[in-house]
Write a structure and sequence with these properties.
This protein is an all-alpha fold. It has one domain. It has 4 helices and no strands. Helix 2 packs parallel to helix 4. The radius of gyration is 16 Å and the shape is elongated.
Amino acid sequence: MVFHFSQQLQNKNDPNLSLCPPDHPFIPVQALEAEGMKLLEGIITLFAQGLGDLRFMANNVDLLSAILNSLGNLVKLRPAFASWIVLTLSKWTPASLIGLPASSVRSIEKAVRILLYNISR
């Protein structure tokens, strides 16, 4: 998947890479765009199961809640990511939360359902 952050803005006042000329001497536009995409993929991977070293992060309920809250804003600002985020969230299962209290598992499940519902509106 190739995404161009600068072409998916809803708010024209949103700072973005399109404000920077492609030949800027100090700001490598393509490198920043690639780095942003890599960071987004890293956040999304936290919801996948069994991804080696990242699996331990999936047991942190506070981290998962913060990421879920951030994804809601990301979908508003970058609607092109909505299908990718929905696909990832729909594949997520609470199996990675084994060993946590039931209330924590329910809290994350509820947050995922609420986010999916809000994206679908």
